[in-house]
From TrEMBL:
Its main location: membrane. GO terms for cellular component: ATP-binding cassette (ABC) transporter complex. Residues 89-286 form the ABC transmembrane type-1 domain. Keywords: Cell membrane, Membrane, Transmembrane, Transmembrane helix, Transport. One of its GO terms (molecular function) is transmembrane transporter activity. It is found in: Cell membrane. This is Glutamate transport system permease protein. Residues 298-345 are annotated as: Disordered.
């Protein structure tokens, strides 16, 4: 253990350990001061106080502050959840799930396209990926919302011909941006598969398309599953940008609630908790999928006797080793001659 640790970094000496202890204490003090300022600031007792800083009344919960019980009481009413939280959560999940499916398809298609042997496929696919990956997501959402205006100014199409909803704009922006990022993830995962896998597949007569879809892509998806889920988590959080185009998602619902109840901090905390719970659920789902894919295709050896029957578990050593029936060795020419001479005698 000590040998491995010294290979990665030099063991700190007495002065370095003392400095690290000082840095730790200073960091804890600064964190405590920051939390205290945050508490007193939203408690409205940091500047508007009639008592000294360390007086108990200064740290008591101010009825007019954001930490008062009345500020949290709206979340105990059913109408708050039915009118604000649940509709916003449904819209957020609808946009995120729709964009996730489309982004995965987009990323898979263009990731494979960038690996094509044909330049007329590889070059346009790379241009599309680099273009949408380099544009901010908010611009994509705004541009999608402005498509009717662009169609009217460029193609002289009347503005009432078609309309782009806020949901369509958010889903389109999330799909194009995150799909471009996922295309690079898929491409990196396919390139990370050992070259011997594709060579072995081609050696048994599989075409390039069969090798890609049967051999390379499943292994690439399994290997890149953490990166894929991390990008989907980013997609879910970026759905909050729909607030700019008046999409009634979760953040906008909590903003309206905070404006109505004047409880900005409690609303922000509850909204953050909901986002954290959803993201943790996605992470757990990714871990489950990764473990499931790692167990898929793993053959379980069944111990058998030389007669073909199962070995008694009480007499086995716990190692699942399959004992094959040994076939009789081929008879040599000398043995055949010996048997013939014996028969003659």
């Amino acid at each position: 253990m000590s040998t491995q640790s010294t290979v990665l970094f030099d063991a700190p000496g007495p002065k370095a350990r003392a400095r690290n202890a000082v840095y730790t204490v200073v960091t804890l003090i600064l964190a405590a001061v920051g939390l205290a300022v945050l508490y007193l600031g939203f408690n409205q007792t940091l500047t508007d106080r009639a008592t000294p800083l360390f007086h108990p009344d200064t740290w008591a919960v101010n009825p007019d502050g954001q930490w008062a019980a009345d500020m949290w009481s709206p979340f105990l009413r059913a109408e708050t959840w039915t009118a604000y939280v649940i509709p916003g959560l449904q819209n957020t999940l609808t946009a995120a799930l729709t964009a996730s499916v489309l982004a995965l398809v987009f990323g898979l298609v263009f990731g494979i396209g960038r690996l094509s042997e044909h330049a007329w496929i590889r070059i346009p696919a790379g241009a599309v990926v680099e273009f949408f990956r380099g544009i901010p997501l908010l611009i994509l959402i705004f541009f999608t919302m402005a498509l009717p205006i662009v169609a009217w100014q460029v193609f002289d199409i009347p503005t009432g011909t078609f309309q782009v909803t806020a949901l369509a704009a958010v889903v389109t922006g999330l799909t194009l941006y995150n799909g471009s990022v996922l295309a690079e993830v898929f491409r990196a995962g396919i390139l990370a598969v050992p070259k011997g896998q594709s060579e072995a597949a081609q050696a048994i007569g599989m075409s390039r398309n069969q090798t890609m879809w049967v051999v390379l892509i499943p292994q690439a998806v399994t290997a890149m599953m953490p990166a894929i889920v991390a990008q989907l988590v980013v997609l879910l959080k970026d759905s909050a940008l729909g607030y700019i185009v008046a999409f009634p998602e979760l953040l906008r619902s909590f903003t309206l609630l905070a404006t109505r109840e004047s409880n900005v901090i409690p609303a922000a905390i509850v909204c953050a908790v909901i986002y954290i719970v959803i993201n943790l659920a996605l992470s757990r789902l990714a871990i489950w999928l990764e473990r499931r894919n790692s167990r898929r295709g793993r053959a379980t050896a069944k111990p058998v006797t030389t007669e073909g029957g199962p070995i008694d578990p009480a007499g086995s050593t716990g190692t699942a080793v399959e004992t094959k029936v040994q076939e009789p060795l081929p008879r040599t020419l000398a043995e055949d001659d010996g048997d013939t001479s014996a028969k003659k005698e």
